[in-house]
Known about the structure:
The complex is a heterodimer of chains A (85) and B (458). Chain A is an alpha+beta fold and 85 residues long. In chain A, 48% of the residues lie in helices and 13% in strands. In chain A, helix 1 runs antiparallel to helix 2 (33-56). Chain B is 50% helix and 19% strand. In chain B, strand 4 and strand 5 (93-103) form a beta hairpin. Chains A and B meet through helix 1, helix 2 and strand 1 of A and helix 4, strand 7, helix 5 and helix 9 of B.
Amino acid sequence: xxxxxxxxxxxxxxxxxxxxxxxxxxxxxxxxxxxxxxxxxxxxxxxxxxxxxxxxxxxxxxxxxxxxxxxxxxxxxxxxxxxxx
Amino acid sequence: xxxxxxxxxxxxxxxxxxxxxxxxxxxxxxxxxxxxxxxxxxxxxxxxxxxxxxxxxxxxxxxxxxxxxxxxxxxxxxxxxxxxxxxxxxxxxxxxxxxxxxxxxxxxxxxxxxxxxxxxxxxxxxxxxxxxxxxxxxxxxxxxxxxxxxxxxxxxxxxxxxxxxxxxxxxxxxxxxxxxxxxxxxxxxxxxxxxxxxxxxxxxxxxxxxxxxxxxxxxxxxxxxxxxxxxxxxxxxxxxxxxxxxxxxxxxxxxxxxxxxxxxxxxxxxxxxxxxxxxxxxxxxxxxxxxxxxxxxxxxxxxxxxxxxxxxxxxxxxxxxxxxxxxxxxxxxxxxxxxxxxxxxxxxxxxxxxxxxxxxxxxxxxxxxxxxxxxxxxxxxxxxxxxxxxxxxxxxxxxxxxxxxxxxxxxxxxxxxxxxxxxxxxxxxxxxxxxxxxxxxxxxxxxxxxxxxxxxxx
Lengths: 85, 458
């Protein structure tokens, strides 16, 4: 995830897993108050980040091509109608 | 001559019975000729023939709809047909009623399909324990399909709607034709080699068995099997099963279905997140409410309230005592003094005339009495105060004296005797007892040690 999050490399899946862990801990209701507030704040942050990430996402389509020297290369995909095949 | 003569109807019925019961439903093989669909009924009339014979056939409109889904019947096409013989009595003809029809070439393909399926199954390529779980949130999905097909369009549309976070990486491949199988297998390998994908989708849209054939080839099956990345197969329609479907980690009924299997639905996930948000908030609020209640209870508790109470009560007591003190001492003395001053003024106003000496004397007496009364009232208060303070200070020795002890002092200088050496026989002493004083004379002086010795020997 990006932005204010502590770990910018955290994927959506990791964020969701972390969120589930936080919720479980809060649910148990045995955390000290300060810990409860900290957990809540972290959960809020993760939620916001997850929601934003989905809201901003636009589908990206790329194409993989084999170059003359045999190596593989990526390029933006231009759409199928005028492509050969 | 007693010969059984049959009517035409009887014989034709007999023929019909024999043909229709003796020859049950069968598979026949032949080449279509004279294919014609009746314009109004929709039934197809044609012949199936081989090099030596010809059979009239009909396919009723209902059967025709089913079988044209798989093949396009036309003259010259070699087919396998399944059906039964019926006799049309009015014309004395028999015909084959076709229920199913397969391309003869397709029949060969079918056999090849079954053979390969058995072989790969025996090798364990379809083993459930080899199937890998699909990632829950794929970040990059490799797609091997035709870049111009409807399959890709459907796939991208559903992927984009459900989970735009996933990037699609297309490896264009021919999905039908002679080189299709090699191309598809190469595509799977390319995406594995290039890396970055956590899921592959391999497939194409619907078509004839021949069209889908590339996905029944061994090279594709092995490429799927050896893919390091999990593979979803999405070939043709719901009813089409290919070898690729058996090897893949997951089989999708259609390309759209492949997208549904590949990624989560963001709408569902967002509502799940909204639920989590509400839950988090309620957790915090519950916790805060608990703490607030505990604080409230503590604030109301006697333990915290008592010191304040004690202080307040102490201050009240102090005020009341100081009032009483002022009233008891100053107040009464003040009143006495006022009375005295008033009396003095009255006294001074009195004009002492010679003719009233006696009266004046009497007045003087009375004024004196008043003065004395006043003085004595004051005196009495003062004494009470002194007494109180004396009692306070004498509390120590007085209590001791009450218990039977005595304080002895020398008569001449009044010094308290603590030692036998301070006094000698014949001297006068004062003895203070509880509520009494004695005067006495010392008759003998003896120290405590002498005393102890005497008592010990006597």
